[in-house]
Amino acid sequence: MEGSVHSLEFKIIDGGGQVAAVVERKRSSSGVELGEDVLCVTVEPHVDRIFIMALVAIHGLICGKM
């Protein structure tokens, strides 16, 4: 993981050093950040989306953000 993991905004990097997913706080159309546990997860093609979501959920629970 790379980035600000405490604010739940980070990148998940695969074994080859490529970005597998990007996790960001979701923002409204006017740019207002929604709740702490409202996230936008962008997963690259050919990456297991369920595995990425499990990593994000587990990380959020460990950090006490979810």
From TrEMBL:
<dbReference type="Pfam" id="PF04525">
    <property type="entry name" value="LOR"/>
</dbReference>
<dbReference type="InterPro" id="IPR025659">
    <property type="entry name" value="Tubby-like_C"/>
</dbReference>
<protein>
    <submittedName>
        <fullName>Tubby-like protein</fullName>
    </submittedName>
</protein>
<comment type="similarity">
    <text>Belongs to the LOR family.</text>
</comment>
<dbReference type="InterPro" id="IPR038595">
    <property type="entry name" value="LOR_sf"/>
</dbReference>
<dbReference type="InterPro" id="IPR007612">
    <property type="entry name" value="LOR"/>
</dbReference>
